[in-house]
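Retro notes
What went well: the complex prediction finally ran end to end.
Inputs used:
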Amino acid sequence: MSELMNVSSSPHVRSKDSTSRIMLDVIIALLPATGVGIYNFGFKAFLIIAVTIASSVGFEYLSCVLMKKKPTTRDLSAVLTGLLLALNLSPDVPLWLPIIGAAFGIIIVKQVFGGLGQNFMNPALGARCFLLLSFTGQMTSFTYDSVTGATPLAVIKAGESADLTKMFIGTIPGTIGETSAAALLIGAAYLLTKRIISPRIPFMYIGVFTVLIAIYALATGVADPLYFVGEELCGGGLMLGAFFMATDYVTSPITPNGKLIFGAMLAILTFLFRMFGSSAEGVSYAIIICNLFVPLIERFTVPTSFGKGAVKYE
Amino acid sequence: MGLLTFKGGIHPFEGKEMSMDKQVVELWPTGEMVYPLSQHIGAPAKPLVKKGDRVLRGQKIAEAGGFISAHIHSSCSGTVKAIETRRTSGGNMVMSIVVDNDGQFETVDFSQNLKPLDTLYTDDVREMIKEAGIVGMGGAGFPTNVKYSPKNENDIDHIIVNGAECEPYLTSDYRRMVEEPDKLIAGLTIAVNLFPKAKGIIAIEDNKPEAIRILREKIGKSDKLSVNVMKTKYPQGGERSIIYANTGRTLNSSMLPADVGCIVSNVDTIIAIYEAVCEGKPLMERIVTVTGDAIANPINLKVPIGTNCNELIKAAGGFLGDIPPKIIAGGPMMGRNMVSLDVPTVKGLSAILCLSEDVVSASETTNCIRCGKCVEVCPSRLMPAELATIGEHHDTDKFKKLDGMECVECGCCSYVCPAKRHLAQTIASTRKQILAMGKK
């Protein structure tokens, strides 16, 4: 047996986790919200979701081929981006709109910067904000039960009150995936128990936001402060954003303390946008702005290595 | 009660049930025996014999080549066939003494090395440990007499026996603890008595309840010795992790355990100390676990050092099927891939692990998705993903600034990485480059 064997460096075993498995888990976690969206908004919503996912995957494949890279469509990240973008769209948008969004998200935000892991901004949110600025009319028209109406947050912003139970269950106007806090929380519980996401970002985000809103409610003398806080928590894209988009690995800090700071910053920005901005919404902008701060946050939150500054024992 | 532990770490598939309940079997080799002169950290040993000499089992055939070095003893009787370079399990060619084993195992009289225990001074004990050629048997191979000779004896207050055996598949330490608890306790008592203020701790992971029970029972009530139960988690048995878990003290790469009052030794090492001091026996055999899903009959063997690894495989019933793609000297996390089985058993070989699947070659590296799992599991609390990227760019300054030199190469980061990046490998090779540059 003079033949030498092939060798590799330790460790010689690997966990079963893989990028595509993680993406699949996030997709699974989004299914309840997707289901409620389709149930609420009908076949149109299903069509939008299908078109967005298909075009995302298509653009991913196309950019890889054009850039002479090995296609990365099998890691499911483009499917996830497509699904997230669709859930962030109004059920009323014309079908060409998600295709433009997918092109922007996948090609400009993700692939041009080097593909998965290299994008500095969440592709789905980048695309949503791009669409929001370019096609404001289509993006902010919300029909529910064939009535075009304002979203609960816009109602509240106008000084009125919305039905909190409906907001929790999701039978309200809004984007396809954001309306049902309950469905989103089920998905979030799945991600947390499978340890796909760390609780640091969402809990910090929602926690700090709750405190800020409560202070605001008390300071401005809202009629029923508790109800107001509940409406702000269930309304808009907060749950979707906090559990599914702020926790996007690529565009959030990898350091444990950085995650906490990131969550707190998101809360402050969302609060400012919602309470003092011109729009009732703020989650999307808060997240993409904080995405840009990630390298800076990481620089200041490098974990202290084990034994740093240890002293000799006497 | 919370179990003793450290922060970070992983829970890989343990695989210990394959060999855990297999009683240690003695292996008497029939083929030629090879004694590499470097089985330890430090200077190679210098041969004391030449070609054609007859040697006995237990005879010193090479002496320490410096302060940090160790003697080497023959584990068989026979004739020195050659002193030449031979391949070792890591693939290196190392100057070795080759002995033609006559199968008689004619042994030197160990009783001549013995002195009554109560007449021994601590320095006599250290001399006996040195004479026996004992080195750390967990793998690193640091000469034990040097480890047990710190600057000030009064500074040492904990001797920790590493019974964690946190590497998956390995059961050699477990079998030692279960089968020879008296020797372990006596050996630890000898070690503890070298230091006026020291206490002995046998630290065991909670997946070995039998070992914990037996040792607790045997020790009974004692001021000096105790058994600590630790959480089963890799790398609980890493030197820094085990010191932290048992004493709460932290140390970094610029320090030795003695700097925080601790000495950590492997179970086999402590038993070797017992045999050296109480039986006069030099270190010439060790327990090796031969296991893995590609092995017909996983087994724990007491093997004379120098035995060809093919004989170990044969004793374990050979392979199931062809030669498996993955044969590892040691455990799956930190063990080294063997390039050939035609290599000798050395003092630091705890196991031969044969796996029928090469998961590392089968997996393809993709982009880092910055999931942060490596940061969570790193027992040194580093940012492996970042360090590996910096390492790929050869930015040694930034690597040092982010404390890359604190890496203990445990491999947790590579294990968890969903993108299957070779994080530990890249970081380890960058560390080696930096260390090599520092030596110039």
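What we learned: Chain B has a mean pLDDT of 92.
What to try next: split runs per interface for comparison.
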